[in-house]
Amino acid sequence: MPEANTPVLVAVLNNHADWQRIQHEHWYRVPLAHAPRRMAAGMLAWYQTKAFGDEGGQIRWYAPIEHVSQATRSQLIPEQPEHPRAHERYWRLEVGALQALPQPIMAQRFRRITFISTNWQQLIHAKQINDLWLGDSLLEQLSQQLISEGMNVVRRRLHDGNTPPQGTFVLIPLLNQIEVSIGEQRLRLDHDDLIWDFAGCLTNIRALQQRN
Question: In terms of domain of life, where is this protein from (predicted)?
């Protein structure tokens, strides 16, 4: 069983040919031009589009990522050498055995999804797509970690003009980011960075404290 904070990448699956490759060849392709900034997930799950009929509009299947490499489309799918994107580069994600979630994660309506960065805990407990986003969860995780290191922390929903006690970190959630400030020093951390490189984000926060 993966650990609760194991990074999970949810990718879109919009055609049966790719689904056949996942099932029988155990790999999935992601064009570099549209890939997430980081490709360091431990698990891969798929949002199936309306192309899958009754199974569309949901996340049902996931698998562990076992190896990541790069190749051109023509190398991945040699039977289509004349394809317009034949020379474009892709991530090739080799995956282990497919597994079904205890309950599919449903979209309330068909929606356009490219990638969602989440973690195992959110994936296994989510009932609908919106449950996968990690804003409040990441804010809580970061806050508790800083407190455990002996730092003073306050959380605010917006800049309210009030001056916090000296030496206090202020955490403010933004769209897909968390702003961390202490004194005059400010740092904005992307959710993806907090998911894929939490330790690196902590290093940057400690450096922020030293500059204050």
Answer: Bacteria
Please give the domain boundaries of the chain with CATH numbers for all domains: 7-132 (2.30.130.30), 136-211 (no CATH)
**H or E element in which residue 202 lies:** helix 198-211
pLDDT digits (tens, 9 = 90+) for 156-175: 876 666 788 889 999 998 87
Token duo for residue 34: 């549209």
Burial of 201 (0-12, 13-18, 19+ CB in 10 A): buried
Residue 185 CB neighbour total at 10 angstroms: 15
| pTM of the entire predicted model | 0.73
Q: What are the structure tokens assigned to 179, written together?
A: 């702003």
DSSP, collapsed to helix, strand or coil, labels residue 211 as helix
C-alpha to C-alpha distance for 180 and 171, rounded to whole angstroms: 5
Give the C-alpha separation, 35 to 76, whole Å: 17
- Token duo for residue 37: 């900034």
Which pLDDT belongs to residue 143?
A: 92
Decide if 7 contacts 117 (C-beta within 8 A): yes
CB distance 43 to 9 below 8 Å: yes
Tens-place pLDDT, residues 36-65: 776 778 999 999 998 999 989 999 999 999
Paired with 30 in beta bridges are: 91
**What token pair was written down for 120?**
């195992």
